[in-house]
């Protein structure tokens, strides 16, 4: 059978797969190095994301791999628990995602407040930028988010006085400059993806000028794969590890499914099946955990590159995984020439993209409550930690929704004679109880009052009890008691 008949889009998918491979390669390596794990493990996750997750149903054009959005959390987990336990955490994350997808919970991730998700990404972006700027100047980054930001001026000042650090800074800044300016380059030049061009030029500069900068350490693909031992599974009894698993699951799932929604807007092909996509992400993460590799999410940069390169089917993302596998197997020593400040520059640029400056400005003009949730979530992640910051954001979003849902209106009709008529409508909850009682207590006590509750959609126990108590004590002596029409 003719290949063109069986695979009508093979040419487009083949071309797109090469573009995605060239975009993914430096990002896979950069995320691994920034996460404090061997560079090859980033490639392993990219390979699994391409071949395993890529073959499964869910989103046809979305590409998965190690994501900058999880770098901070992975680094903290590796520093706290060690690389073997990371495999256990990623495996458990994958199994939870499979369970959630099987129970058809994927669609509910769309109910998570967009402000919380954008605040989460903004917080990650800020910590990522601050941490990677230390790698740009070949310095050791403080542990806390606030410490990273506070120590930057001193680190930059020290770099200016050190030849090696100054060379490292030059490469990092040059990498960022190439990434920023790449869109303005001639069209023929832009056939090479920006990240690959930036890393390639930095590597060439480091070799030609013999710059004294740190480069990627290479262990070999098989040497870097270390499945978690049975002792590592014992850490599942730790509350900290369980909390990290929950954080990985929520963040990886939300980022993947929000990315799927964004990718769906970029093409006219089949829409994402959210529950199946969650299962596919879970299967990929479970395998990454078994291999001791990084966690994966769907990555919007690679996915957008896939769509824009003309991909038509999931074959493009599967082939990109094959190209990553061939590179890791045949050319791993090439990684040893890549300067770490160049990879740090790529992640600084990626972190900047995670901060939704335009969205914050637009939200502040139209929905200040949502803008506040976004900012508080981001600041909490920087000041405290990823998990607690996300929980604070979710709590604020729930509180805001509850407050808005408890909207209530009191309408008073006083004709000057006869009873005063009061109509309550909306949702009477304990959140608005002080306002309700203040308004009712302002009604005249020496006139009959008729309180109509039939317009209420919801009346909770606290409000019902408070209204009954108010009705009993409101009327003055000699005045007819308050008459209440039940909801």
From TrEMBL:
Domain of life: Bacteria
Keyword Nucleus recorded: no
Domain annotation SLC26A/SulP transporter: ranges: 10-377
Cell compartment(s), UniProt: Membrane
Membrane topology according to the record: Multi-pass membrane protein
Record carries keyword Ribonucleoprotein: no
UniProtKB keywords: Membrane, Transmembrane, Transmembrane helix
InterPro entries from the UniProt entry: SLC26A/SulP_dom, SLC26A/SulP_fam
Pfam families to which the protein is assigned, alphabetical: Sulfate_transp
Major subcellular location class: membrane
Chain segments annotated as transmembrane: 14-34, 41-61, 81-99, 111-134, 163-182, 194-216, 236-258, 321-350, 371-399
Name of the protein: SulP family inorganic anion transporter
